[in-house]
Amino acid sequence: MWVALQTLLYGGALVLDTSRHFDADTAVTLLAGERVALTMLIGDATARPITDAIAADRRGVGGGRLDLSALQVVASGGAILSTSVKEQLRALLPHTKIVDTYGASETGGQGRLRLGPDGSPKLVTDEHTAV
Fold first, then answer.
1. pTM of the model
2. Separation of alpha carbons 78 and 102, rounded Å
3. How many CA atoms lie within 13 A of 49 on its CB side?
């Protein structure tokens, strides 16, 4: 809900999949076709199938048919992404920022996590500092 409201309040276009069931191939096709700039996922439960769908597309005829160059941010809320999924996403989408977010839904997202030099998650307090 927060991503939807923020998008609309900033004057952006909101893209919603009206399918009753999650399908990663449909989701990736929608991301590419609508030139989505930010997508919100729920941990590995949705990120792993999305990653697999992107990888399968890249292995396809001609190196892939889907253009995800507009995708600037892949964010996860509700569950953090595993290191392996983050690494796969970074390899498949080197131009895209991968972000773990957290916070109570009734008050909005309060924080983001970034991996520190030792590979452990670090709280991001601003764009330049991780504690």
1. 0.77
2. 7
3. 12
Counting every residue written for the chain, the total comes to 131
* Residues 75, 38: Cα–Cα separation, whole Å: 7
Handedness of CA 63, 64, 70, 71 (dihedral sign): negative
Starting at the earlier edge strand, list the strands of the sheet with 38-41. Answer: 38-41, 73-76, 97-102, 111-115, 121-124
Position 67 pLDDT exceeds 80: yes
pLDDT digits (tens, 9 = 90+) for 106-115: 555 556 666 6
Contact 47, 85 (CB under 8 A): yes
- Cα–Cα distance between 103 and 110 in angstroms, integer? 5
Tokens of residue 69, six digits: 């160059």
pLDDT category at 61 given cuts 50, 70, 90 is: low
